[in-house]
Amino acid sequence: MNIVHISAECYPAAKAGGLGDVVGALPKYQALLGHKTSVVMPFYHNKFRNENHFESIFTGKAKLGWHNYTFNVLVPQGLDLGYELCMIDIPGLFDRPDIYSYDDDTERFITFQVATINWMNMQDTVPDVVHCHDGQTGFIPFFMNKIKDYERLKDIKTIYTIHNGQYQGQFDWDKLHYLPPFHSFFNGILDWDNAINPVACAIKSVDKVTTVSPSYMEEVQYSMGGLEKLLQIERGKCTGILNGIDNDIWNPATDTMLEKKYLARTLVSGKRANKDWLCNVYGLDKEKPLFVFIGRLAIEKGADILPQAIYYAFAKLGREFNILVLGSGDKDIEGGLLHLEHQLKGNYCSYIGYNEKLSHTMYAGADFLLMPSRVEPCGLNQLYALRYGTVPVVRRTGGLRDTVIDIGDGGFGICHDQCTAGDVIYSIERGLQLYQDQKRFSKIRKEIMQIDHSWTKAASDYIELYTK
Ligand code: ADP
Ligand code: GLC
């Protein structure tokens, strides 16, 4: 099969979160199953652009209302990603460092989609499957199905994956002219709640919808930012497929970002070296158990309860453990986390920002990973933690429910039901009890490193779905 993935993120070219990890890995594992895979994404002016050379393979035009943009399709040279990476360079809209959060994101991502479809329409061969990821690519299936200029692409099968149903990118009907012209008969496909909604449009237009875990597929039927009714109506074409992880990148035995690499056999000394490094750099006591949080500082991650949970955890349980936080996002949460540093010096530290290397060292050096998420469509952090022998402490929701089993149920993690400071503190207390029993703790750490969450299974689940 010839499969094209379209996404705003793809690691290593651009990553803001798990979407980048997934789109950077899934096509590689599909290619290993014998398929031709490629990824189409925007060309940002970031580190990847500065560190690589690119060849232009196509130049075209994309209209956004009355504006004309010239775009180039660039391919990085001398890189073996395991799939073909095609980057759409649109001067004026994407020649900026960040992926999202600009005032004109609506204009940026519509133009990206128009450029992508114009280019696909001009190629000699068309793919068998177009797989779109999240709202920034949600109009593509509609363009393919309903716009006359793209009639050639009409019979290609389309899949839409919901990685995160919270960010829908809806906008007012007065921007309708941004889209290429089509018969007004189809307006209803774009609409949800009196706005143009790319996520709703994708769900209505595609052949198959997937979410990134089976539990999240259940949850979106009753909670997905207003789209739940639509998900109920379209239930027949929806499936939940659990994400995998890229075992080549996330492997403590080969990970060059670590202070010391290790296998399950050498777990104790390997984790010790990474923990020592973290404790030295962040002023923490090496002899105490280390809990970490890594992620976007957003309400859906439960990050808003962290300052309170951390403060009261130390007040209630004493200073016999440490917490290290890595993340960025909401300014109030960032402020709350930084504020604690002075009061909890020696036991707590936070790194506000994005740091790929530090995240790897934290998965390796930590004893426990905290994930108190309110919403977690899949979650990759807990899967990385498992692979690095770090015990996940999670709220039972979405993909966390599907991947972490509580030690009380014969499993290997610590689970709680509410996204509250009280539940997090109780889970930390359970973690400390487990840590006291070093024999059991060590056995669990070795076992979790062996759990197979590689992409091999999920990649073939997607192929099976495409085949259907
Ligand atoms: P989401 O996509 O919702 O942010 P995931 O758990 O799927 O959550 O994936 C998060 C990814 O982003 C992981 O690879 C994680 O290590 C990484 N990440 C999140 N925040 C940071 C940060 N501040 N620095 C480095 N990596 C981060
Ligand atoms: C989203 C979700 C996260 C998931 C990731 C990759 O950002 O929030 O739970 O793991 O996408 O699918």
- How many E strands? 17
CATH topology of the largest domain: Rossmann fold
Distance between the termini: 13 Å
Question: What is the CATH architecture descriptor of the largest domain?
Answer: 3-Layer(aba) Sandwich
Give the number of domains. Answer: 2
Task: Specify Rg, calculated over alpha carbons.
Answer: 23 Å
Note the beta-strand portion: 15-25%
Chain-averaged pLDDT: 97
Shape: globular
Q: Ions, cofactors, ligands: which are bound?
A: adenosine-5'-diphosphate, alpha-D-glucopyranose
State the major sheet: 9 strands, mixed
In helices, the fraction of residues equals 25-40%
Summary, kept brief:
This protein has 468 residues and is α/β, with parallel strands linked by helices. The protein has two domains: 2-244 and 456-467, 3-Layer(aba) Sandwich (Rossmann fold); 264-452, Rossmann fold, CATH 3.40.50. It has helices spanning 18-32, 47-51, 105-122, 140-146, 187-190, 198-205, 214-220, 228-233, 267-282, 306-317, 331-343, 356-365, 381-387, 398-403, 421-436, 438-449, 455-467, and strands at 2-6, 36-42, 54-64, 67-76, 84-89, 129-133, 157-162, 191-192, 195-196, 208-211, 238-240, 290-297, 322-329, 348-352, 368-371, 391-395, 414-416.
Task: Please render the helix and strand layout as text.
Layout: E1 2-6, H1 18-32, E2 36-42, H2 47-51, E3 54-64, E4 67-76, E5 84-89, H3 105-122, E6 129-133, H4 140-146, E7 157-162, H5 187-190, E8 191-192, E9 195-196, H6 198-205, E10 208-211, H7 214-220, H8 228-233, E11 238-240, H9 267-282, E12 290-297, H10 306-317, E13 322-329, H11 331-343, E14 348-352, H12 356-365, E15 368-371, H13 381-387, E16 391-395, H14 398-403, E17 414-416, H15 421-436, H16 438-449, H17 455-467
Parallel strand pairs: 1-2, 1-6, 2-5, 6-7, 7-10, 10-11, 12-13, 12-15, 13-14, 15-16, 16-17
Antiparallel strand pairs: 3-4, 4-5, 8-9
Helix pairs in contact: 1-17, 9-12, 10-11, 10-15
The chain binds adenosine-5'-diphosphate (ADP) and alpha-D-glucopyranose.
Adenosine-5'-diphosphate (ADP) binds near residues 18, 294, 296, 326 and 355.
